[in-house]
Amino acid sequence: MKLIFLGAPGAGKGTQAEIVSERYNIPAISTGAIIREAIKNETEMGLAAKAATERGELVSDDVVIGIIKERLAKDDCANGFILDGFPRTVPQAKALSEMGVEIDLVVSIEVEDEAIVKRMSGRRVCPTCGASFHIEYKPSSKGENCDKCGEKLIIRKDDDPAVVLSRLETYHEQTEPLKSFYETTGKLRIVVGQEELADTTALCAKVIEDFMGGNK
Ligand code: AMP
Predict the structure, then answer these.
(1) 189 included as an active-site residue
(2) Alpha helix (H) ranges present in the chain?
(3) What residue owns the CA closest to ligand 1's atom 11?
(4) Residues 175, 130, 8, CA angle at the centre, nearest 5°?
(5) Whose CA is nearest to atom 2 of ligand 1?
(6) Quick check: CB of 83 below 6 Å from ligand 1?
(7) Residues 28, 113: Cα–Cα separation, whole Å
(8) CA 81 – CA 83 distance, rounded (Å)
(9) What's the predicted TM-score (pTM) here?
């Protein structure tokens, strides 16, 4: 199964992608996580991506297309994968299709901008293992520390409210057009993001199960 999770930053696509990844035992691939790792390690790509990411802007299509090409060539993608945060522009979606990747389903998680700003102010991430939490909706069992590796959790630079507004603008301008791009392929499914994480998970599961049922 090859899935794309679409949605504004903070809509919950990363969390849902992780849940689906565990359920179906296929990797969830986050270009944002790959870029953050490169920035942390100060690789050439990381240094080039740092400024754009911190301003809430997109990294260039060429760079992220290169990242995805390399990642999808790995063995663990043989039975499928979930893309979280890619594609984010129409040229990226076209590049994916030109790579010969046939996507089964595109799940767009929709959440109002206002709710997103509120959500993102409570988001915390682990700088060591990359796990993501929310002080209200998905707290770590170890409070201010990561419940996977114990590291002290931090607020991502790009979760700062001013940067969040800029990221939302970028989303509406550059990523939202992907909905009509995928609608024409008949693969787009809309999930309205719910207040409770588990309710969104149930809606995503239904969309995926309906697809699997129709493809037995
Ligand atoms: P995310 O964790 O998915 O919100 O991504 C964090 C940041 O990484 C974004 O704000 C962008 O600067 C960059 N990024 C991640 N994925 C992409 C992509 N597909 N295209 C361009 N920039 C990206």
Answers:
(1) no
(2) 13-24, 31-40, 44-55, 61-72, 90-98, 113-121, 161-170, 177-183, 197-214
(3) 58
(4) 20
(5) 32
(6) no
(7) 25
(8) 7
(9) 0.88
CA of 151 to the centre of ligand 1 (A): 24
Quote the pLDDT of residue 145.
Answer: 97
The rounded distance, in Å, linking the Cα atoms of 208 and 152 is 35
Contact at 8 Å (CB) between 47 and 63? no
Paired sense of beta strands 81-84 and 105-110, if any: unpaired
- pLDDT value for 213: 84
What are 30's two structure tokens? 């986050």
Percentage helix, strand, coil for the chain under 3-state DSSP, each rounded to 5: 50, 15, 35
* 36 catalytic per annotation: no
Phi, psi at 140, each rounded to 5°: -75, 145
Q: Which of 39, 40, 53 to mutate to test the pocket of ligand 1 (most atoms within 8 A of CB)?
A: 53
* 3-state SS class at 21: helix
| 187 in catalytic set | no
What residues in the chain have per-residue pLDDT under 50?
Answer: 216
- Give the Cα-Cα-Cα angle 82, 88, 93 (nearest 5 degrees): 75
Instruction: Read off the amino acid at residue 133.
Output: F
Name the residue at shortest CA distance from atom 8 of ligand 1. 32
The distance of Cα 144 from the centroid of its chain, to the nearest Å, equals: 23
Check: CB of residue 5 under 8 Å from CB of residue 27: no
Q: Which of 83, 111, 86 is nearest to 178 (CA)?
A: 86
Query: Tokens 């588990």 belong to which residue?
Result: 198
Of 2, 88, 119, 124, catalytic: 88
Distance in Å, CA 216 to ligand 1 centroid: 34
